[in-house]
Amino acid sequence: MYPFSFTKVSDTREALQAGRRGGRYVAGGTTLVDLMRETVERPHALVDISALPLREITVTERGGLRIGALARMAETATHPVVRRSYPVISEALQLGASAQLRNMATIGGNIMQRTRCTYFRDVTAACNKREPGSGCAALHGFNRSHAILGTSDHCVATHPSDVAVAFAALEAVVHLLGPDGERGVPIVEFLLRPGDTPQREQALRPGELITAVEIPAHPRPLKSGYLKVRDRQSYEFALASAAIALHLRGGVIREAKVAAGGVGTVPWKLPAVEQRLIGERPSAALWADAAARAADGARPLAHNRFKVELLGRTVERQLRTLGGTR
To answer: What is the value of pTM for the model shown?
Structure first.
């Protein structure tokens, strides 16, 4: 680990000042500290923001949900409003990491976490995300766990967050505070596809701080849930996952929100699946037909072609679980 300075701040003004000077924000530290230990990340200054008043979870005036950036994964997953109104969020959080990590990791840190690609974390391997212009060892290496959607010739690493998939499905907005004031960015625009700049992963401006993630109000009743398929049952990242929310009224699907994880360079919204569902009555045939569109545009690699079928099966299974069959 390389030398660095450490500052603990108690209000957002102090945090922004430190961030403006190039300090890296840290709260739970469950990702950044690991990367520093492995010398993948070498920040010259850390700014501890864990004391900032950004842990509240509240219902908004319009009936949505606002989750403070420093709310812990564990407390968010068990919050009664989250469990009652958005089980997809609760389930995604409970299926991520270990109990110990969930007690430390924050919501803001979770969506900011960097890929678990082994080539990214191996400082001897070529990785455009870690060292722009060095190449991507995963393209022609062992790429079973890598992305099939949103890839580029420069990067095929998956985004590791489970709850970010739920946020993408629910069309969440990331609230930011920086030197230029406050702004909100839809999460599907906040997390960036690699393109030809894979080292730039979020739409953050210099010195900006995540203050909250807001879920807009959705019509009720809303059935939602998260399904994660992985190699083992605990402490493992997704090979494919599906976050789905359905609003049914009069036996007809009025709204459908669907996103996938484990298969994309970012949490992957599935508009073709959503469009196929809206206006239809639940049935086994509908679930199968909609799920067949899940991997549209996929670009599988040598070792992850199985993800095309796995993604469709994962989406179909979760649609059956939430919507029933006849």
So the answer is: 0.97
